[in-house]
Amino acid sequence: MTSSPIYIATVSAPTNIACIKYWGKADAHYNTPTNDSVSVTLDQADLKAVTTVAASASFTNDRLWLNGVEEDVSQNKRFRACIDGVKALAKEPERWKDLFVHVSSYNTFPTAAGLASSAAGYAALVAALAELMDAQEEYVGQLSTIARQGSGSACRSLYGGFVAWKQGTAAGNKSPWDNSMAVQIATEQHWPEIRALILVVSDAKKDTSSTAGMSTSVATSTLLQHRIKSVVPERMEAIEKAFLAKDFEAFGQLTMKDSNSFHAVCMDTYPPIFYMNDISRMVVRIVHAYNAWAGDIRAAYTFDAGPNAVLYTLEQYAVEIGALMLHYFPADSENYINRSDYANEVAAFELDSALLAATDKTGRSPTAGDVKRMYYTQSGPGPQVLDMDQANLDPTTGLNTYAP
Ligand code: DP6
């Protein structure tokens, strides 16, 4: 028990999956990218990070619990940058500046498996601190420049819908890289038919972290330089246009090509980095066979720094593509698909025999176990402030209460 008051706030934040990928740092200290990127923010009803922060004069050091387990943050520069960054924007900075902070955060999906858990986690951390300390942005997007220092992709999770991360400039507007920030291109209401189906190919921790992988790519890949100069700028423009025009054909094609470009850069890195595996590549083949059978693009795959597939599609095709994936990657566990209503529709859907004849040509035969889980979701809003009863820190002791 403690005599000093404990101030507390809880926020949830979404993941995001990039369509044009961030890969490469221009400045490792400020954590800024070598190119612009853009992503869809996913719905927190299906995947989210929930973070409680507390500050009190009775705390003796900064502490962090991740999924219920305490981590040593004494040397963690990313965590430090987020706390100090938000403290500097507090409405009453004097009130917070000397207080230590306790943080408890958990994800509703596998951590560090290429499912953007660090994006949701750092976005939730910054949003929760901002809520606790009543942070005041001096310009729109300033909080995203803080989240960026936690994890680059986290800056995009501060907004809903379709969100770009503008590379920014070393000189910035007033201070270095203060314009390397997230910008919302469209809200989640703009294209409400967009859906995402995530195939969890492996929930093991990945071998090469994004941070280490991109640093080796910057040092060794000539293809990355070509991507930065000649590929991404045009694609950014084209995909923003496609999203605003709700042109799935263009959006899907650009998304798939950019995922392929990113993984080609990984292959061009020396020594090469392999994030996709045989199952990932089989999903690519099936999606292309499906689109060829349909005569237009109904599904678009994208892969981050791990083997999991994210398939973007439209509401009208979501059951068909789900049924196709379930056919080739059948369930081997209960609650294999996160949403039961969707799972029922998918299980009952009868696939066209000509479609199956076309996708069988990929060489895939239905085998359980290669995909561990599927998440069906859509685009959603940015961080949400939650009630006190959702806190994962004890309001009287400031200690973690979350158990997985
Ligand atoms: C492949 O944001 O995890 O998912 O800034 O070093 O924390 P750090 O990297 P991180 O990298 C994400 C890479 C990606 C592409 C993307 O999300 O744009």
Question: Can you characterise this structure?
Answer:
The structure is a single chain. By secondary structure, this protein is an alpha+beta fold. A hairpin with a 2-residue loop joins strand 7 and strand 8 (69-71). Helix 1 packs parallel to helix 3 (117-132) and helix 3 crosses helix 4 (142-150). The protein is globular, with a radius of gyration of 21 Å. 36% of the residues lie in helices and 20% in strands. The model has no long low-confidence stretch (mean pLDDT 95). Strands 8-7-9-6-1-16 form a six-stranded mixed β-sheet, covered by helices on one side. Ligand DP6 binds next to helix 5. Its EC number is 4.1.1.33. InterPro entries: Mev_decarb, Mev_diP_decarb, MVD-like_N, Mvd1_C. Residues 380-404 are annotated as: Disordered. Belongs to the diphosphomevalonate decarboxylase family.
Blueprint (SSEs and pairs):
Blueprint lengths: L5 E8 L2 E5 L4 E3 L4 E2 L3 E5 L7 E8 L6 E4 L2 E3 L5 H13 L3 H4 L3 E8 L9 H16 L9 H9 L11 E4 L16 E5 L7 E7 L9 H11 L1 H23 L3 H21 L9 H17 L4 E4 L6 E6 H14 L11 H9 L4 H8 L12 E6 L5 E3 L18
Parallel strand pairs: 7-9
Antiparallel strand pairs: 1-6, 1-16, 2-5, 3-4, 5-10, 6-9, 7-8, 10-11, 12-14, 12-15, 13-14
This protein binds ligand DP6.
The site of ligand DP6 has 14 residues, from helix 5.
Mind summarizing the main beta sheet?
A: 6 strands, mixed
Secondary-structure element series: EEEEEEEEHHEHHEEEHHHHEEHHHEE
Rg over CA atoms: 21 Å
Strand order within the widest sheet? 8-7-9-6-1-16
CATH class of the largest domain: Alpha Beta
Spell out which ligands are present.
ligand DP6
Low-confidence parts, pLDDT < 50 over ≥5 residues?
A: none
Number of strands: 16
Ends apart, CA distance between termini: 25 Å
Shape: globular
Strand content: 15-25%
CATH topology of the largest domain: Ribosomal Protein S5, domain 2
| Helical residue percent band | 25-40%
Can you count the helices? 11
Family: Belongs to the diphosphomevalonate decarboxylase family.
Pfam families: MDD_C (PF18376), MVD-like_N (PF22700)
Protein name: Diphosphomevalonate decarboxylase
Biased composition (Polar residues): 393-404
